[in-house]
Amino acid sequence: MITMPDGTAQQMKRELVVILEMAKLLEKPLDAPRTIQGILRLLSQLYGLNCGRVSLPVAATNTMEVRYSYGLSPEDLKAGRFTLNINQGVTGYVMRTGSIGLVPDVNKEPLFIYRVAELSNHTGGRMTFIAVPILESGRPIGVLSVQREGLHERPFDGDISLMRIAASMVGQVLRIHQFVVDQTAHLVKENQHLRHSIAIEAMLKQSLAHGILGTSPALMDAVRATIQVARSDAPVMLLGESGTGKEKFARMTHQQSDRREKPFICINCAAIPADLLESELFGHAKGAFTGASQNKQGKIVQADGGTLFLDEIGDMPLALQAKLLRVLQEKKVDPVGSDSAISVDFRVITATHVNLQESVNQGRFRLDLFYRLHVVPVQLPPLRERQEDIRQLALHFLNELNHHYERNWSLEANAFEVLERFDWPGNIRQLQNVLERTALTSDQDSLSGAKIKHSLSSESAINLPQHASGEKPGISGTAETTAYQPSGPGQRPYGRSYNWVNQDEAAQIRATLVDTNNNQSEAARRLNLSLRQLRYRVSKLGIDLN
Ligand SMILES: Nc1ncnc2c1ncn2[C@@H]1O[C@H](COP(=O)(O)OP(=O)(O)OP(=O)(O)O)[C@@H](O)[C@H]1O
After folding, report:
1. Does 220 share its domain with 341?
2. Residue 246 in domain
């Protein structure tokens, strides 16, 4: 049996008590601040090691701060007295080197910095400062420090070994705490991601239910914007080139609103001659003009309770704009030749392919009406800006054709390539037509890229209405037409010119990228391409961007 002096046995007993009490703290559910403070409290109350603190490095800085403490005044903590540079003082030394820091008498140690008010006021007596590293895989991740006041009989060895045990417990708590924090952050992120995916899925389902195909971000933005406001009565203005699905979106908005059981009335202001548009919209009384043999209900009254969709609103004559504004303000319609107004309640959705702000600037559209209608603008992307949707749309339309004509047409792989490389100035409607023409003129069920190209080149002979440039489509209500040029520079009847991706372009794109220091936006601008088109060409032509 080993015998030891009474003092040593006593001290070991006390150490054991402290260790057992600390271990008990670790058995409790994890609460890092509480557990670490508990450890510091035990060191102080049971062992006389006071003002315990755990200093940790501050991320991305060269400093450390006290994160957990016991017995330090809140004023000192608040005053930030415990933030120190890692190159300073005993704590910094322990953190840098992973060694033990023992200052038997702080009054005699020049390295020691008096940070605590209590210490700075300390006059006589001996004050010992002990700091041990908190290690992880042998590397310091923080420092545990205490101070011991007065003359103690016991040697420092016992204090240091007890502190090492305490530091390893603190390290364990910190590790578990960090693990929980990381896991929680990961779960929060995953949860956000899931919510986002669910929201997109829900939107896709809703848009699919209305026959709107496509999953591209540009289309989803438009779907999101539309669905968000569908249930309100806010006027929606759909902006986009011809054939981008403005009418489809208007119908979806109506179907998603509380007015869905009521009529959806659609009128194309560009398709009706100006002199007939007034009576079409507002109605007329019998005898109002030659040929008005009976009362006629206008589209606005027909839309009562439901939604009125005014397509190509930019083509509405100024006189009718004033009349429409009155209806929107007063919620009353005056049919032509009638002196009794009819009360109406409808939601208005408008669509335009022209830049209405420009029309306002040029005096062709009333500013007050513009403000009334342009409450929720929704931009519908042209097909060339959502090339990733072309395959899905093409397959869908081909299915419809097969169903309708009871045939079994299919698209060859190179047909998809051709479809995806085309600019589609007439957008989805044009895609539909080209597929139908290709199918009907093909003597085989399998439709090749060459056949699609053939149908597309015959498109170049078709006159299409002036578009997208914001140029005047004709106030009279009959849109001006312009020849659709396949690739003539400067000719952009529908957005960008008819451009195939071809190898000859590669050198020009490379040179432009070099000239612009690989600034893709600037290169796209110089090449008269959208950024998306440029990126598509860069990937198709295998151009190295480095
Ligand atoms: N996202 C889509 N998914 C499936 N079909 C679509 C989609 N968008 C449009 N279409 C179809 O394309 C054709 C043109 O759409 P729509 O008439 O809604 O376009 P628009 O922008 O109103 O055209 P315009 O301005 O020339 O009247 C329609 O046959 C429509 O069903």
Report:
1. yes
2. yes
Closest residue CA from atom 14 of ligand 1: 243
Burial 145-154 (b: 16+ CB within 10 A, else e): bbbbbeeeee
pTM, entire model: 0.58
Residue reference for tokens 């208007």 = 250
Contacts of 437 (CB under 8 A, 6+ apart): 455, 458
Ligand 1 centroid to 487 CA: how many Å? 25
Residues 345 and 424 occupy one common structural domain: no
Intra-chain end-to-end CA distance of the chain, in Å: 77
Q: Is residue 193 part of a domain?
A: no
> What per-residue confidence (pLDDT) applies to 5?
58
Q: Indicate whether 41 and 148 sit together in one domain.
A: yes
Report the residue among 252, 267, 428 best suited for mutation to probe ligand 1: largest number of ligand atoms under 8 A from its CB.
428
Render pLDDT for 262-293 as a digit per residue (tens, 0 to 9). Answer: 999 999 998 888 888 999 999 999 887 877 88
**Span from the CA of 362 to the centroid of ligand 1 (angstroms):** 29
List pocket residues of ligand 1, CB cut-off 6 Å.
211-214, 240, 242-248, 311, 353, 393, 428-429, 432
